[in-house]
Amino acid sequence: MIYTDMEHLDRYRGICPQLDTAIDYLLENGLELLVPGRNEVDGEDVFVNRFHYTTMPREEAAFEAHLDYADIHLLVEGREFIGVTPIEKLTVTKVDREADNIECHGPVETKIPMEPGKVLIVFPEDAHMVKIENGGAVKVEKAVVKVRV
Q1: NCBIfam families from the xrefs (predicted)?
Q2: pLDDT level of residue 3 (50, 70, 90 thresholds)
Q3: Where are the domains of the chain?
Q4: How far apart are CA 14 and CA 101, in angstroms?
Q5: Are 85 and 109 contacting, i.e. CB atoms less than 8 angstroms apart?
Q6: What is the dotted CATH code of the domain comprising 2-148?
Q7: Angle, vertex CA 23, rays to CA 7 and CA 40, nearest 5
Q8: Is 134 within 8 Å of 67 (Cβ atoms)?
């Protein structure tokens, strides 16, 4: 897991070529031009999903993890907490290889405050729970960069 500010994102180049591509894209293009839905960057290796939702109490949110992709979470608008726990500390309830999604449950180990300008990168070992309220329910406009690792 990496938690940083957008202005420091370039420090994390060199982890893998696809992450470098994602970082370059974000620093060169920002988030304002992203359309809702899928935005192409580099085929299946790097793409961006932009979407919105309303945050909810932690008890209503769910963990997910991925087999093949890291996620770069960025907020365009709103605020939320993202809960993160190493997947080996959780109970896996469903694995969907086709969708690259693992459902799991258990306690949140770390609660990351997200707002515009913050960046959270979670890797396959980092189960994450999005949509957690931070000061009440609010609408969140978000981008998630999917990076094949």
Answers
A1: YhcH/YjgK/YiaL family protein (TIGR00022)
A2: very high
A3: 2-148
A4: 26
A5: yes
A6: 2.60.120.370
A7: 130
A8: no
